[in-house]
Write a structure and sequence with these properties.
The structure holds two protein chains of two kinds.
Chain A lengths: L1 H31 L6 H22 L5 H28 L8 H22 L4 E2 L7 E7 L2 E6 H23 L1 H11 L1 H6 L4 H27 L1 E2 L5 H14 L4 H21 L5 H15 L14
Antiparallel strand pairs in A: 1-4, 2-3
Helix pairs in contact in A: 1-5, 1-8, 1-9, 1-10, 2-3, 2-4, 2-8, 2-9, 3-8, 5-6, 5-8, 6-8, 9-10, 9-11, 10-11
Chain B lengths: L1 H9 L3 H24 E5 L5 E5 L1 H35 L6 H61 L8 H18 L3 H20 L7 H21 L1 H4 L25 H4 L7 H27 L1 H11 L1 H6 L4 H27 L9 H14 L4 H18 L5 H5 L9 H15 L31
Antiparallel strand pairs in B: 1-2
Helix pairs in contact in B: 1-3, 2-3, 4-10, 4-13, 4-14, 4-15, 5-6, 5-7, 5-13, 6-13, 10-11, 10-13, 11-13, 14-15, 15-17
Classes of the chains: A mainly alpha, B mainly alpha.
Chain lengths: ~300, ~450
């Protein structure tokens, strides 16, 4: 029971991070039907932005309040990562819109290689550890000498994820931008005819996805305390798995999928074998796609001739 | 991009171009400023500290601003004018181009057969090692993998991002069976191919209903699963440490070593490791040509035509009574077969295999070669392999740059960065790859190649 509860807490934390990344995949796939392969590396780059500015704030400016520093870092990382994603869309994807279907995917894979190798060249191939922050936490339960703890960091991740998801849910459901996005998702040509600026809407979709990936990146850095240039690929694929599991194109689906993947992964490593946790995640991806391609909350794809 | 539209009518708009260039400079400053300008390094106490490199950032931003300005004022108007000129004259391949197309393939095959002789006569046995091994064999492995994957991606239109799994199956089959049972390469080569093909069928079967991007992601997942199993199934595969001292290939029983029965002693030649490399070169050349030959012959068979029909329109294919399941499975199995051959060759050549060699990056490189070359085009795939693998191998040779940029400069680390940039650049420049024309396999009066952009390729 105690182990179960602890794994549940860990799983929800991990799942929140996957969910935040998964939204970027699901929104872009929903609107232009493309697997944005570089999204995982955008997430990794955002963690590096957070790392760099955290160091600048603490060592150069000597800021002592960790919470304030983290909030500033989060905002800077969101802005810069959005800009990065906007630039990538402009350079690598927009010229290929309407081109044959594999071209954007190959371009995205190329961009993913570019990003991870660029960060490797610019920042060096070593692991980048930061000093631990927000140590301590609440003791939820203590039985048989096994203390179930919810650390402050985990609580912070839960709160930040919940607040941001609510904000994004509001943007997509209630604002003109969200309406334009949903219109483009349904029929891009018709939306354009009705005066929606399609290019701008697509750009903003990339920007929104990247902003959430930046939140995930900052939280990832503060949770694990270490980041490496190659950290984009595996979380990226898992977040994509989450998006597919939840039903691609659906925002709540992405979050539910993320939580499920996080839970499956932590329970798998807790009860079976930590070696095969990635195998478990990838197997779920394959099984879901084969037996339930529309996912949990997605619309079934209608084949038109 | 606003400048593009006005440029066609009355010359480049300098003011807009300046504004655009400065804006790109600003974006570059925001992105490259932190990532390049503030490098995080560990100090003696293992704490991260910031090292600033603002000079480098300034140089990069200057290059971007000036490059963008020149692009808007000179390059894009010139390109637009050229496009107008080209579209004004009807497209008709010149006689030179037709002759080139006709003679290119035989000429390059002849060149490939003469290549080691040429290199040896120019540089001697010892000097030839690098050129035959790093360039010749390395590129030919990728040509073979590209041609193998070309069956799956190029002909059948099934995007497979886990192709490297079959390569791994081939490599590990040879590595394990030869070190445990001492079987020879010539027995294991077909066996490795058959194992890989069986895996191809096994993994292909469940994913047949998927299409496009979904298929790509599931194959990616399978590729990663196989790699993770290779890492974690330590009892069999020795984990990430890999399997070493894998037996070498013999020339029908004659080993390439210094023993009395070895190749050099037998033919009374001075000892040199170059013979083995040259032998491997011809071996992979023949294997690659076998792949090409089988593909070319299969394209003329009903199954080959079914593949291409499947690529163009799956629904039409099914309506015409083609068994799509079998068609897809044969494509998967054949592609995997050749990957298995290439894998066992790879294991024999390296003498060492580890899961490190079979990462997703390898799959991405092979897919990139197929798509960049132009899906379905044998010549295009070979050209793309030469350009991408040869080009990045060449970067290893740029040691002289150290004299310019100082000793810390290592051109090797830019290899994959440039590879990725090239992938994006080529896709934007030629979304259909180097050779995008389609040659029909069946025709009435005359064989006429058509441009790839006329083909819809909507579903698949």
């Amino acid at each position: 029971m105690e182990v179960f509860l602890q794994q549940l807490i860990n799983g929800i934390t991990l799942g929140s991070i996957y969910g935040l990344i998964a939204i970027g995949y699901t929104m872009v796939f929903g609107i232009i039907g493309m697997v944005n392969f570089s999204h995982g590396d955008v997430f990794m780059t955002s963690a590096f932005f957070a790392l760099i500015f955290l160091l600048v704030l603490t060592t150069v400016f000597g800021m002592s309040s960790m919470i304030l520093a983290l909030i500033i870092v989060l905002i800077i990382a969101m802005v810069l990562t959005s800009l990065l994603s906007w630039a990538i869309e402009r350079i690598a994807y927009r010229p290929l819109r309407g081109s044959f279907r594999l071209a954007p995917l190959i371009s995205a894979i190329g961009m993913s290689i570019v990003l991870s190798n660029f960060v490797q060249v610019a920042q060096g191939p070593r692991n980048k550890p930061i000093p631990p922050m927000f140590t301590g936490g609440f003791e939820v339960m203590n039985a048989n000498n096994f203390a179930v703890t919810l650390s402050y960091k985990q609580l912070m991740i839960w709160v930040v994820t919940a607040v941001l998801l609510a904000a994004f849910w509001y943007i997509v459901q209630k604002t003109p931008l969200g309406r334009a996005q949903r219109a483009c998702e349904q029929d891009r040509k018709m939306a354009a005819l009705l005066g929606v600026n399609v290019d701008r809407t697509i750009s903003l979709t990339f920007v929104m996805g990247a902003a959430l990936a930046a939140v995930a990146g900052t939280l990832y850095l503060s949770y694990y305390g270490v980041v490496n240039f190659s950290d984009g690929f595996v979380p990226g694929v898992k977040a994509f798995t989450a998006a597919v599991l939840g039903g691609i194109g659906s925002l709540p689906g992405a979050v539910i999928g993320g939580l499920l993947i996080g839970l499956i992964e932590t329970f798998w490593s807790g009860y079976f074998s930590i070696d095969y946790k990635d195998v478990a995640a990838f197997s779920i991806l394959a099984i879901v796609l084969i037996f339930m391609p529309q996912g949990l909350l997605g619309r079934p794809e209608v084949e038109k001739v | 991009m606003a400048a593009d539209d006005t440029a066609n009518k009355h010359g480049p708009d300098i003011a807009a171009a300046v504004k655009d260039a400065l804006l790109s400079g600003l974006v570059a400053l925001a992105l490259f400023g932190p990532l390049i300008g503030l490098r995080t390094e560990q100090n003696m106490r293992n704490e991260l500290v910031i090292q600033s490199r603002w000079g480098l950032v300034a140089a990069i931003i200057a290059v971007i601003v000036i490059g963008r300005f020149l692009m808007l004022t000179l390059v894009s108007p010139a390109l637009a004018r050229r496009r107008e000129r080209v579209s004004a004259t009807p497209e008709h391949p010149s006689a030179l181009r037709q002759a080139l197309g006709k003679w290119f393939a035989p000429a390059s095959i002849a060149f490939l057969f003469l290549y080691p002789i040429l290199i040896v006569s120019l540089l001697g046995f010892q000097g030839s090692l690098k050129w035959v091994d790093n360039f010749g064999i390395q590129i030919l492995i990728y040509v073979m993998l590209g041609w193998g994957l070309n069956i799956v991606v190029g002909l059948a239109g099934l995007l497979d991002l886990g192709y490297v799994a079959f390569y791994a199956v081939g490599a590990y089959s040879y590595a394990l069976l030869s070190s445990h049972f001492g079987l020879s390469f010539w027995i294991l080569l077909p066996m490795a191919g058959i194992f890989a093909a069986l895996w191809g069928i096994m993994l292909g079967f469940p994913v047949l209903r998927l299409r496009g991007d979904y298929l790509a992601i599931v194959t990616l997942a399978f590729g990663e699963i196989i790699r993770l199993v290779l890492i974690n199934f330590r009892e069999l595969t020795n984990g990430s440490a890999g399997i070493s001292s894998i037996p070498k290939v013999t020339l029908f029983g004659i080993p390439f070593d210094a023993s009395p029965g070895g190749f050099a002693k037998m033919f009374d030649l001075p000892l040199s490791s170059a013979y083995y490399k040259i032998f491997l070169y011809y071996l992979i050349l023949l294997l690659a040509l076998l792949t090409a030959f089988v593909t070319i012959r299969l394209r003329k068979l009903p199954v080959g035509r079914a593949w291409e029909a499947l690529r163009e329109d799956e629904i039409a294919c099914r309506s015409l009574g083609i068994n799509t399941t079998n068609t897809k499975l044969t494509a998967f199995a054949l592609g995997a077969l050749f990957a298995g051959f290439a894998g066992s060759f790879f294991a024999a050549r390296q003498g060492f295999v580890s899961p490190e060699s079979f990462t997703f990056m390898e799959s991405a490189i092979i897919v990139a070669i197929v798509v960049l070359g132009g899906m379905g085009s044998m010549v295009g795939v070979a050209l793309a392999a030469v350009a991408m693998i040869g080009g990045t191998e060449l970067l290893r040779e740029l040691a002289f740059l150290k004299t310019i940029f100082g000793d810390n400069f290592n051109p090797d680390q830019f290899r994959m960065l440039i590879f990725g940039l090239a992938m994006v650049g080529i896709m934007i420049w030629k979304p259909r790859g180097f050779v995008s024309s389609r040659e029909p396999t069946i025709f009435l009066a005359e064989k006429k190649a058509i441009s790839g952009s006329l083909v819809k390729e909507g579903h698949g």
